[in-house]
Amino acid sequence: MTRSLKKAPYVDAKLLKKIEGKDPRQSTEVIKTWKRASQISPEMVGFTFGVHNGRVHTEVLISEDMVGHRLGEFSPTRTFHRHGGKMQKELEQKRKEAEITAAKSAKAAADK
To answer: What is the DSSP string of 67-89?
Structure first.
């Protein structure tokens, strides 16, 4: 959801206070934050933030392309495992068989 043009972009004051007076080239520490809704400002470029995704802090190195986006966009909260079903199992079985045959042929070529 976009923010009204009458209002300024939301940047958490505590985050700005943490990076205030620091040089991004010299500081290698990760700045941990839970403020996923905070927008990335130009002052944050070069810093590494640990954005919490509900379980762990994901390290995000801020670049110029990220300015204007939210911190939470770069720390996904959901993990995709795979689609299930009979068709997926058949595809995985074929892939395993292909790997086994490729390994056997490579081993046979190495023995000669």
So the answer is: TTSBGGGGS-S-------SHHHH
